[in-house]
């Protein structure tokens, strides 16, 4: 399955990739845990990323994986980056996220990073969450 590597969320991450790597490498395990918990990366990707010892390399590879996931993956990642506990852990991230234009990919208001659930065969959420959004699929 090919993912759409264009879209506003993808562009934001690509444009600010160097800043994000510099910022997130300060506590690379923390962001990795959050991205895995939100199912933005698969268990297999998570295990591979965990074994990269260099913080900058680990964060760079994580961001590359998010970008490879396409617009929906990038939108979810941007949403994670705006969560209060993430902003508290990475205070300089607030300065980076303030540069971003509002991003709306679904309905509702969530500080400019509203995400709709994927309609592909690859669900980024648990089966229960997908089922309750009308998308019954399972992680592969």
Automatic annotation (TrEMBL):
InterPro entries given for it?
Answer: CARD, DEATH-like_dom_sf
- The chain positions of domain CARD read 5-83
Q: Which domain of life is it from?
A: Eukaryota
What CDD domains does this protein map onto? CARD
A GO BP entry is: regulation of apoptotic process
List the SUPFAM superfamilies hit by this protein, alphabetically: DEATH domain
The record's annotation in Pfam families points to: CARD
Q: What is this protein called?
A: CARD domain-containing protein
């Amino acid at each position: 399955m090919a993912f759409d590597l264009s879209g506003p969320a993808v562009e934001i991450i690509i444009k600010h990739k160097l800043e994000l790597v510099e910022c997130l490498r300060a506590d690379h395990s923390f962001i990795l845990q959050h991205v895995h918990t939100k199912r933005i990366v698969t268990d297999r990707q998570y295990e591979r990323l965990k074994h990269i010892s260099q913080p900058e390399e680990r964060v760079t590879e994580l961001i590359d994986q998010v970008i490879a996931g396409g617009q929906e993956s990038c939108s979810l990642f941007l949403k994670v980056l705006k969560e209060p506990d993430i902003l508290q852990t990475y205070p300089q991230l607030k300065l980076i996220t303030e540069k971003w234009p509002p991003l709306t990919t679904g309905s509702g208001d969530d500080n400019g990073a509203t995400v709709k659930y994927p309609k592909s065969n690859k669900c980024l959420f648990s089966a229960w969450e997908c089922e309750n959004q009308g998308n019954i699929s399972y992680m592969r």
